[in-house]
Amino acid sequence: MAGAPGDVAELPPRLAIMLFRNRVLLPGAVVRIRCTSPTNVRLVEQELWQKEDRGLIGVLPVRDLQHSAWESKIKSSCNGIPGKNSRVFPDGSRKNVCRGVAARALHLSRGMEKPSGRVTYTVVLEGWCRFSLKDMNARGSYNTARIGQLDMTKAEMEQAEKDPEVQLLGRQFKVVASELISALEQKQRTVGRTKILLETTSAHRLADIFVANFENNFEDRLAMLDAVDLKQRLVKATEIITRHLQTIKVAEKISQKVEGNLSKSQKEFLLRQQMKAIKEELGDNDEDEDDVVALEKKMQNVGMPANVWKHTQRELRRLRKMQPQQPGYGSSRAYLELLAELPWQISSEERELDLVAAKERLDSEHYGLGKVKKRIIEYLAVRKLKPDARGPVLCFVGPPGVGKTSLASSIAGALGRLFIRISLGGVKDEADIRGHRRTYIGSMPGRLIEGIKRVGVNNPVMLLDEIDKTGTDVRGDPASALLEVLDPEQNRTFNDHYLNVPFDLSKVVFVATANRIQPISPPLLDRMEVIELPGYTSEEKLCIAMRHLIPRVFDQHGITVQHLKIPEAMVELIIQRYTREAGVRNLERHLAALARAAAVKVAEREHSIHVAREVQAETTTTTVVEGGEVADGEIDMEVEAMGVHGRDLANAIAGVEPWHVDEAMVETVLGPPKFDGKEAAERVSTPGVAVGLVWTAVGGEVQFVEATAMTGKGDLHLTGQLGDVIKESAQIALTWVRARAAELKLATGAGRGLMDSRDIHIHFPAGAVPKDGPSAGVTLVTALVSLLGKRCVRADTAMTGEMTLRGLVLPVGGVKDKILAAHRFGIKRVILPERNFKDLQEVPANILANVEILLARRMEDVLHEAFEGGCPWRIQARM
Ligand SMILES: Nc1ncnc2c1ncn2[C@@H]1O[C@H](COP(=O)(O)OP(=O)(O)OP(=O)(O)O)[C@@H](O)[C@H]1O
């Protein structure tokens, strides 16, 4: 026996029969079965395992219901009754279709023997050819049957295949079969082996194999088994496979239709669900994803311009693709959060500008400053008439604490806009204004965008504080970035490097402040209108303190005039002895210190009142009986404790005298006076010291110049924080003095010796204030003449001015500030270059009434006024 299944030479007349419950083995099909029942185990053992040759057995399909019936039928009717080989159906009918398939074992394996002695076999069987059951013998340990071969032999088959009808049916079947293979191939199932069979195997054999492979229905398989006739078999197989093919096609169509009906968003939803599931599997936190959704929602509502929205969408997509642990996720998120938080469309409502109210507001918040307030009102009036007018940017220039910031905030109040202060002090990097590009690690938006984010509206009043303190270095020029900010043409599309999309700053009202004009770059200055605030006189400071600072400080510390009284005299004392500033910042600080001290006292008082009442409550819960007699049980009046907490505090101590600030208290709180008005007199009490007036970033300043002589070769040494110009001034001063030694009567005696053989050392001791102005020439000469003539300069005199080699005194700047500084310092006489006369108009009258101004054209005039009478070289002053 050889060849492929179906190519049957001859079957033996009797075969051992194995019953297949609800399964049909067809020729060409391969099954793997595990035999555990004693009958089958014995069958396998004897018919297959113990035979050297490959054994053949008969496989007979039976229905479940039939199974037991068969057992009995086989015993009663099938056995030994030829012609009764019929299949018994549940309805009791009998059909003459009792057929099976002879099968050969391709592989056999024997299971381990169990302790009970039982063994099992696993058999791989291949269907070989159909047979009919003639009779069954169940007398042995398993069934055997006499059989008759049904399938044709190879030679008969070849003959039959020549029939054109068989050939046609065969071709038809192969067409359907190959269609099925291609349909399955599309689904990427492994159908390779079946495909090969299609080309190499005859149609009738293929029919059995296809049905065995693709059809699970017991009845159909049974029908196939019954189809002994070739034509019938091909027709049956074509029908079964066609049906199978249709089912696949319909399923395909339905799934395509369903897919087509899914909208893009549904697909996205499905994909997201899948992603969520995957993330859950991976243990990734899904909160971030929810956050991103919230972020996107927020962004949809902030009214971004279309181009920004497009850009944002792109960034969002990028973020979604990232894992939260991935580097760059955090920065990408922070960036998107900034985009979501910026007020693209949010403006605070600008109320109708009431100029009268604005003026009242300015007056109520600031004392004096008449000119400044006038200019602000003009500025507001223009805005009222033409709201989108591209007026100049106001720039308040003045020393610290003169109210620049608070004026800007009053403008915001008058316009009904929000106020934001951007500090530009020390900004040297352009990125501080414009932000870093996002490629930098730790990049951030610039201060302007950051400020806009903080304030939350796109039309605030933005104060560019200390605009003069921006410097230029290798990291770029912040001033040029500011130019763009302040230019109405350009700030509509302000481009912050970090933001990377334009932001409209055109609705922002810019106000700037500076201590000095000089450091501001000319193009920037050109875009601004400078309003100077020079500093206050003592009288102005007193008024500011009484009207504005004290009420504000009290309010900030939760105390009232019922707790503390600061008399004017004490405020004056603080102004004179504890502060020497142009503004009122330190004054405010000192007043705050007094208020704090008072707050402590008030709190202590509160505590003592509280305890006293409680004691009273306990001891006075006694009975008071009219007539003065105490009678048990007769209660007329009960005395109750008073609550003195919280708001009752003011009432509780209402009866208590307010705390009056006196000199002793000022000293206790603020320490001993810092300035006593005698400093100048003390310092000029030795020859070689002169008092000059200089101008610095913090306004006018009093400056001592000390000159000494020591053994040397007649060199000049200069110390202090000095610039080149002042060094030159010192050289001119020495040259001038040496040239006039005789005239000044310095060239004789000790003076002469000092002049020629000794080094001169000039020192500017006042702190670390850099001094570069040219205006120290006059003071330097005076100090040298004092040193060499061994005469002291008048104690109450200060001077300012530059000079030429020929002794002409040149005009200088900042005269008003310098005179204010001298006044603060307690100096009574100021020597000025004659040509600065016009500057005196700016000096408040009350100052001029207190400080004597002496004007000089030549250096000799200055010297005449600087030294106290009796000067040996007294020169006629030309005033
Ligand atoms: N004329 C004034 N009337 C009332 N208060 C004033 C006046 N000038 C200054 N102040 C008060 O003095 C304090 C300091 O003023 P502000 O902070 O505006 O000074 P500034 O000139 O901006 O100083 P800086 O240049 O240091 O920022 C504030 O409390 C301010 O209200």
From TrEMBL:
Q: Which GO terms describe its molecular function?
A: ATP binding; ATP hydrolysis activity; ATP-dependent peptidase activity; serine-type endopeptidase activity
Residue numbers binding ATP: G398, P399, P400, G401, V402, G403, K404, T405
The signal peptide here is: none
Q: Might you give the EC number(s) for this enzyme? A: 3.4.21.-
The residue stretches assigned to a coiled coil in this entry are none
Establish whether keyword Nucleotide-binding is in the entry. yes
**What is the name listed in the Swiss-Prot or TrEMBL entry for this protein?**
Lon protease homolog 2, peroxisomal
Gene Ontology CC annotations of this record: peroxisomal matrix
State the Gene Ontology BP annotations: protein import into peroxisome matrix; protein processing; protein quality control for misfolded or incompletely synthesized proteins; protein targeting to peroxisome
Enzyme type, top EC level: hydrolase
- What high-level taxonomic lineage is stated for the organism? Eukaryota, Viridiplantae, Streptophyta, Embryophyta, Tracheophyta
Pfam families attached to this UniProt entry? AAA, Lon_C, Lon_lid, LON_substr_bdg
Q: What is its main location?
A: other
Fetch the InterPro entries from UniProt: AAA+_ATPase (IPR003593), ATPase_AAA_core (IPR003959), Lon_bac/euk-typ (IPR004815), Lon_lid (IPR054594), Lon_proteolytic (IPR008269), Lon_Prtase (IPR027065), Lon_prtase_N (IPR003111), Lon_prtase_N_sf (IPR046336)
